[in-house]
Amino acid sequence: MKWVLLDTNFLIYCFDFKIDIREEISCLFDNSYEIFVLDSVLKELEKLKKKGALTYASRFKILKGLEEKVDEDLVLFSQEGYIIATQDKELKGRLKKPYVIIRQKKYLALVE
Predict the structure, then answer these.
(1) Where are the beta strands (DSSP E) in 7-106?
(2) How far apart are the first and last CA of the chain?
(3) 14 is in which domain, residue-wise?
(4) Mind listing the pLDDT tens digit for each residue in 72-104?
(5) Of 107, 77, 106, which is closest to residue 91 (Cα–Cα)?
(6) CATH no. for residue 82?
(7) What's the CA gap between 76 and 57, in Å, rounded?
(8) What mean pLDDT do residues 13-32 have?
């Protein structure tokens, strides 16, 4: 079972580009996965007034963050075995591989 944790910018891009996260993740992990969102990511979406992305994010299981900053939480969860889905260049450099990114504004790819 793979655990995928979605970053704020990843959710915004997926919503804007109309990418079906569940469908794309199932292609990567053969239906053996769970998708999560941090409670702090939901708060960021509220602050950014991204109501569509917030509604989209609410479909997934919610995890309570450990730190005050979302990026710090994502790095910690990455070290615990979660696969982080992000478009943030700086964050990708800090994550344990593998992680998930968006390719060509229409599908997801696993970076190993």
Answers:
(1) 33-38, 61-63, 83-85, 99-103
(2) 17
(3) 2-111
(4) 999 999 999 999 999 999 999 999 999 999 999
(5) 77
(6) 3.40.50.1010
(7) 20
(8) 93
